[in-house]
């Protein structure tokens, strides 16, 4: 069965189609890690995107629910060069079976190097994944400021029984962020991102972790004053979308990179220590460096490859944010210390101007 990937710049790529015949449209993005495909496919920040894996063989260790970042596949379509279909260890499900069960098409045997070269030259763009038995699909207009309206839960849910009580502000969080907090002995309340301030305050939280999430941070601008108020009263930590939202809440601007950073080996430099470390990343948007001038933030981490902002520290409050993924799923665990630093700040929350 043949399928086609069509990029909005007119380029088409043929491949072998797996799954039900369908036609979908989504933003085409590429991931450069050699492993970690299960974490990528289930990461809510990839919602609706068509993912191209640059590593030439994907699926070698199957799917083990252990690594899932949410309850389902979040990407809209999967493009690979080689799709592994050999033997697997007991308890592993073949990648194709997993995708087909979730109704997500895979196109294999694709010249992924050319697809990625196209995206690097023309920038992130819309694309269509079409089974060749179907008629052409009309191009849908692109939604500006996309962010899915729903959250993982409608109501606040509390898990764990540890001593520090952390509010995980849910923009569609990755489960490894929650798991990291639970491993560090926290009680975690998962808080839908549009929760009322009185409700948040009634929980007697020690700190707030603003999660990752899909889409454009500007879609949340109506909530920026609320998030600024929260971050001024609780020790806070922002990861990826959470970083972008917190920076924006204090007056910074975000912009979209040509083709984003998605992989497990992006070098970042801590500007205080000058130490370079490897980070796991998945984002299109970045905080504009020159928009930080009138904010209370200093750049803490910078991307070694392109100089973009990778993390911020507030000049006076216990508030840090990172564009990369310290929870390391998939990717290096170089930045787990950031969770420890956040919890140390949460344990001394009286140092923050607390609510009356
Ligand atoms: N991983 C994330 O939180 C992604 C943030 C945002 N959706 C971006 O693409 O930049």
Automatic annotation (TrEMBL):
It holds the Pfam family CPSase_sm_chain. Pathway: Pyrimidine metabolism; UMP biosynthesis via de novo pathway; (S)-dihydroorotate from bicarbonate: step 1/3; Amino-acid biosynthesis; L-arginine biosynthesis; carbamoyl phosphate from bicarbonate: step 1/1. It comes from the Bacteria. The keyword Nucleotide-binding applies. This is Carbamoyl phosphate synthase small chain. Its EC number is 6.3.5.5. It is an enzyme of class 6 (ligase). Small subunit of the glutamine-dependent carbamoyl phosphate synthetase (CPSase). CPSase catalyzes the formation of carbamoyl phosphate from the ammonia moiety of glutamine, carbonate, and phosphate donated by ATP, constituting the first step of 2 biosynthetic pathways, one leading to arginine and/or urea and the other to pyrimidine nucleotides. The small subunit (glutamine amidotransferase) binds and cleaves glutamine to supply the large subunit with the substrate ammonia. Belongs to the CarA family. Keywords: Amino-acid biosynthesis, Arginine biosynthesis, ATP-binding, Glutamine amidotransferase, Ligase, Nucleotide-binding, Pyrimidine biosynthesis. The active site is at 240 (nucleophile), 325, 327. Composed of two chains; the small (or glutamine) chain promotes the hydrolysis of glutamine to ammonia, which is used by the large (or ammonia) chain to synthesize carbamoyl phosphate. Tetramer of heterodimers (alpha,beta)4. Residues 1-165 are annotated as: CPSase. It catalyses: hydrogencarbonate + L-glutamine + 2 ATP + H2O = carbamoyl phosphate + L-glutamate + 2 ADP + phosphate + 2 H(+); L-glutamine + H2O = L-glutamate + NH4(+). Residues 1-130 form the Carbamoyl-phosphate synthase small subunit N-terminal domain. L-glutamine binds at residues 45, 213, 215, 241, 244, 282, 285. PANTHER family: CARBAMOYL-PHOSPHATE SYNTHASE SMALL CHAIN, MULTIFUNCTIONAL TRYPTOPHAN BIOSYNTHESIS PROTEIN-RELATED.
């Amino acid at each position: 069965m043949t399928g086609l990937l069509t990029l909005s710049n007119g380029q088409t790529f043929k491949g072998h189609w797996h799954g039900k015949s369908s036609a979908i449209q989504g933003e085409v993005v590429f991931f450069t890690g050699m492993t970690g495909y299960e974490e990528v496919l289930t990461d809510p920040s990839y919602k609706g995107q068509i993912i191209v894996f640059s590593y030439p063989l994907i699926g070698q260790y199957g799917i083990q629910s252990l690594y899932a970042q949410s309850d389902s596949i979040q990407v809209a379509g999967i493009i690979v060069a080689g799709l592994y279909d050999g033997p697997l260890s007991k308890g592993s499900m073949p990648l194709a079976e997993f995708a087909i069960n979730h109704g997500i098409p895979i196109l294999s045997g694709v010249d992924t190097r050319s697809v990625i070269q196209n995206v690097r030259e023309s920038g992130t763009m819309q694309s269509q994944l079409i089974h060749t038995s179907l008629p052409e699909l009309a191009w849908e207009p692109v939604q500006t400021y996309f962010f899915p309206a729903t959250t993982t839960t409608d109501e606040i849910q509390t898990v764990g029984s540890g001593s520090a009580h952390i509010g995980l502000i849910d923009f569609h969080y990755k489960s490894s962020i929650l798991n990291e907090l639970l491993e560090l002995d926290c009680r975690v309340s998962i808080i839908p991102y549009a929760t009322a301030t009185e409700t948040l305050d009634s929980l007697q939280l020690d700190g707030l972790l603003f999660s990752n999430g899909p889409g454009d941070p500007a879609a949340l601008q109506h909530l920026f004053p609320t998030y600024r108020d929260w971050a001024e009263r609780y020790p806070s930590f922002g990861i990826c979308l959470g970083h972008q939202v917190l920076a924006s809440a204090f007056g910074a601007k975000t912009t979209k990179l040509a083709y984003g950073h998605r992989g497990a080996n992006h070098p970042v430099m801590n500007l205080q220590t000058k130490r370079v470390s490897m980070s796991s990343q998945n984002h299109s948007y970045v905080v504009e460096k020159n928009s930080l001038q009138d904010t209370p933030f200093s750049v803490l981490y910078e991307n070694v490859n392109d100089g973009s902002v990778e993390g911020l520290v507030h000049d006076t409050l216990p508030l840090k944010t990172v564009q990369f993924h310290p929870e390391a799923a998939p990717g290096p665990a170089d930045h787990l210390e950031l969770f420890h630093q956040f919890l140390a700040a949460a344990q001394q929350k009286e140092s923050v101007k607390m609510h009356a």
